[in-house]
């Protein structure tokens, strides 16, 4: 089977990295399969067959009697598109915790992601992007507050406090912006489509 995957990959003109990206597995997984170090699970074979534009049976038939046929279905829980979408929507909504515990609220989606240990790689990537978005929001909020402080200090020193900016202006502007970002991400998640991997 390993030789067949190598030949199919080369026929498609793909590197191991490109195949890993298309199949949503790690490069190390591709390396282990191609070298014969590990026997891939049904889910992985289906993902590879899809990426290599071949069929599952063609690759699976290469497995010996001790291989795929005797293995339990170890496909990740995250293969159900409904579960994936629900998880990402929950993660999005958890970001609204910034209204109650700002600056450390991103720890809640981080916890949810760690708890969801068997998600599809695409889901994990999307979840990490959502968490990064919240961390960037915190950084930008702090930067705006510091800029407002600097501006107010300069105004107070040279213009007798004539044009001071209230700290509530950038604070509430960023809070409102984050609410819109979370809602937009939630809608994007709702429109995402996952490929259902059937057994």
From TrEMBL:
Regions that span the bilayer: 96-114, 135-159, 165-186
UniProt-listed Pfam families: HTH_3 (PF01381)
Annotated keywords: DNA-binding, Membrane, Transmembrane, Transmembrane helix
Domain HTH cro/C1-type as annotated: residue spans: 5-59
Keyword Secreted assigned: no
PANTHER family documented for this protein: TRACRIPTIONAL REGULATORY PROTEIN-RELATED-RELATED, TRANSCRIPTIONAL REGULATOR
Record's protein name: Helix-turn-helix domain-containing protein
The organism's taxonomic lineage, starting at the top: Bacteria, Pseudomonadati, Bacteroidota, Chitinophagia, Chitinophagales
